[in-house]
Amino acid sequence: MSARSFDNHFKDLFENTSDLIHFLDCDGNIQLVNPTWLQTLGYLFQEVSGKNICEFIHPPCIEEYIEVRRKALKNQEIVELVTTLLNKDGNEVIVEGQIGGAYDSGNLLHSRGVFRNITFRKLAEKKIEESEKRLSAFFNNGPDAVIVINELQEILEWNPKAETIFGFSAVEVTGKLLSETIIPDQYRQAHIRGMNQFLQTGEGPVLNKTIEITALHKKGHEFYVNLSISHVRVKGEWLFIAFLSDISERKKTEEMLIRKEAELLQAKILEEKKNEFISIASHELKTPLTTIKAYAQLVLSISQDENPHQLNPYLQKIDGYADKLNYLLNELLDVSRIHAGKFLLSPKEIEFNSFLTEVIDSMQHITSPHKIILERNEHAKVLIDPLRIEQVITNIISNAAKYSPGKKEIIVNSSSNDNKIIVSVKDFGIGILTEKLTEIFNRFYRVDDVSKNFSGFGIGLFIASEIIKQHNGHIWAESKSGEGSTFYFSLEKVM
Length: 495
Ligand code: ADP
Fold this sequence. Notes:
It is built from 14 helices and 17 strands. The chain has 495 residues and is α+β, with helices and mostly antiparallel strands. Bound molecules: adenosine-5'-diphosphate.
């Protein structure tokens, strides 16, 4: 190649390269810069010619630049450098390149710098670094637990909040299956199914939604979390990012509110029942009282001129209704004693067989036209308050008679079972709906349809169940609506 052709090539390279090239004299003043240098910094050649290179260097970088140049020229070597220049508008231009010199017999002719503009690359790197910093700040200090798993459900990432919420450290769970750590037994199959469904169809039941679900703590207890899962494809594999927050406290408050509301509702229902009860009670008490008064007036008027023997049936009526009134008032007193915790028993050891026979005999007088059949009567010693147990049997048998109008029989049995005696009273009357079978033992409870056709307070069975409870026994009923009912109670035998 001729010298002239070489010059042309050099000129072409100097003018068209994308690098920034400058030539400086011994003092660092600009002798020559290429068009890319001028364009990048926004100057014309005459504006920079003869000026010191330091005028175009970002001030914080000047000292380093001078030092690197001094070293390169002193050692006559080429030294790499990343520095920042300033363009005409004062904006930073980050460059990376080399500084070296041209010498003649050891004497410096000029120094040279060849640099590449790396501003965009640096900015991009800075952006990535910043967003990585932000991401890592979010990952490490964010309010949510963040868990990343792969398609095989293996845990890849587990942030500090996940450690706090679930009690497992990242080291403990990394590489383990999610379903073996925080997913409770009842959701494990669904989780595996959901994952397979996603891998086959691209859709999963919980992806990109927020749901409330329970999770498992390291200590074994379940608690409520808010869960949302996102998915992302990285290098041909799906990754799933779960964001979870502990909402157990909120759930507890919600549950407490629901409980409080239920309690208030119950208190309201009880209040309504009480009011209803007062109106029924006044009616029930008034009926015998009015009858007593009517008969008493009749007796008074007849007694003026009639034979006193003719008054007997009326006096018996008065006596009977006074008894009924007494019975009702005693029931009311029992309820208030139970309420005040003053319902006390006077237990005695007795032979149940003869006791039951006596009670049935005396009941038979007041339950005609029903015939009470004592089918089986077990011999057993029991420690009971006889008056109270008589009250239970009387209540159940009078109910059996009351709720089976037109029927003829009531069947009573007492049988023995291990250490218990079980008494049953069966009638063939109106029966009770299955769903009401436990409610009838509640205070003031009466089955709706019954209230219209049969008199009563709705407290007899409540008192009976309280008496049986205090004897450590049980009371229950079996029935089919329209086909009669059987009431049972059990008492402990004395061994
Ligand atoms: P009441 O004074 O209303 O009879 P109880 O407490 O004795 O009160 O009984 C509660 C409710 O249970 C009754 O109102 C009735 O609806 C139902 N009940 C009780 N015994 C029977 C029975 N033998 N047959 C049908 N229903 C019954």
